[in-house]
Amino acid sequence: MGLTIKEVSEKYGIPSETLRYYERVGVIPPVTRTAGGIRDYGEEDIAWVENAKCMRAAGLPIEALIEYLKLYREGDSTFQARFALLSEQRELLLAQKKQLEETLDRLNYKISRYALAMETGKLTWE
User: Fold this and answer.
1) What pairs with residue 39 in β-bridges?
2) Proportion of the chain in helix, strand, coil states, percent, rounded to 5
3) CA 53 to CA 81: how far, in whole Å?
4) What is the CATH number of domain 1-74?
5) Rounded CA gap, 79 and 72, in Å?
6) Which of these, 87, 49, 88, lies nearest to 69 by C-alpha position?
7) Is the dihedral of CA 44, 47, 49, 52 positive or negative?
8) Following DSSP, what letter does each residue of 71-91 receive, concatenated?
């Protein structure tokens, strides 16, 4: 037996409502159910949850994840489309990373100037 929705929710820090939503809109495939209709997350279900959590944490939009699952379900003929979708998302993430690095560099510079000012009692921007 796999994990219940409550166990998956606790393990991955994703509210049960979000897991249900992901399944309903197609971010993850329909989860295996017990004979009584209870969600029973097996290894493959968990792998999709982990993928969704990772991709959402990276900022990928729900629509991109839905499209990816749709393409995946269509089979091997969609390799090129999946490649393109993931490559496009990667480029967007790299641009965000660059922006974050630039912002971090600016903050580090300002922090270093204030650290020096606290030592010397004088703020200089040279």
Assistant:
1) 33
2) 70, 5, 25
3) 22
4) 1.10.1660.10
5) 8
6) 49
7) negative
8) HHHH-GGGHHHHHHHHHHHHH
In which residue are the tokens 């790299």 written? 94
**Residue extents of the structural domains in the chain:** 1-74, 79-126
Query: Measured between alpha carbons, how far is residue 29 from residues 80, 82, 84 in Å?
Result: 21, 16, 21
Number of C-beta neighbours around residue 55 at 10 A: 19
CB–CB of 1/42 below 8 Å?
no
- Angle, CA of 79, 80 and 82, to the nearest 5°: 65
Evaluate whether 31 touches 21 at the Cβ level (below 8 Å). no
What are the pLDDT tens digits along the chain (126 aa)?
Answer: 799 999 999 999 999 999 999 999 999 999 999 999 999 999 999 999 999 999 999 889 999 999 999 999 999 999 999 999 999 999 999 999 999 999 999 999 999 999 999 999 998 876
